[in-house]
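Subject: complex prediction, re-run

Hi both,

The earlier run crashed halfway through, so I resubmitted it with identical inputs.
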Amino acid sequence: MSDPETLPAGVHPEVELLPWYATGTLAEPDRQRIARHLESCRDCSGELQELVDMQRNLQALYRQEAEPSTQLARSVMARVAADAAGGQGRPGETTWVAGLDRWFRSLFMPQWVPTLAAVLLMVQAGLLVWVVLPPPERGEIGTRSLGMQTAKIAVVFQSSATEEQIRSLLQRLQARVVDGPTGDGVFTITVNTGDPSAQAALALLHERRDLIRSAELVRP
Amino acid sequence: VLRTQLAKLTRRAMAELTREHQEILRLVFYEEQPYEEISTLLGIPANTVKTRVYYAKQRLKEQLARLGEKEPIR
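This time it finished cleanly. Structure:
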């Protein structure tokens, strides 16, 4: 509900200016006019006293709350409203200061950051997959090593075979132990599939019954 | 104690006022702005500023009286 544009009947027109008389912000001619009126008007003097008391109370109240000034609050809200309307102010207001402001803000909000973040995420995901996946079989040529073509043979040595005899045999086959022994005494050895071939190595192992109890090719 | 009670009462009475009345009372009595400047700031005629302050003060006085009757200051 809006207020009437005029004072109630019977109220002296000087009352309108009493708030500014009380706060000492009235222009000199008006101040003198009100002062003269107050000398002879008890009603207006009473009104003035009420205004003085009210100001004291309100000042104490506002000092506790310590809000920003109305002018500042209105200025900020007007700016927010203008920005929310989608504009950067009225066209005529575009100054070099506004341009500088936009440039400075752009430093903190570069367009390429989301793209960079996405690329980094993809690289990290790739690295994670690469680490988690099992390495390729030794017989395969992988990207992480230049492995030679090899074959695996499960071998059980005779209990009478000495370490020196076994080593000598493995050197002759250019083989090496890569696993074992299991609970059954099975060792896994690898041999190059080049020269001699895996089958030839297997045949040689079978010939050495004095050292080898059993030998069979491990199928991948 | 009396001052604290009065401050509480004034705060509650102010809260009952319209936003326009709260705003103009703050501008006049706390920020001590001349009515010409308030007129410019709010974009309303100077006469409206004067009458608005008058009615805002009346509303605040009424609210203080109402609240004071409910909870007299001792």
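Residues 63 and 69 of chain B are 10 Å apart (CA to CA).

- K.
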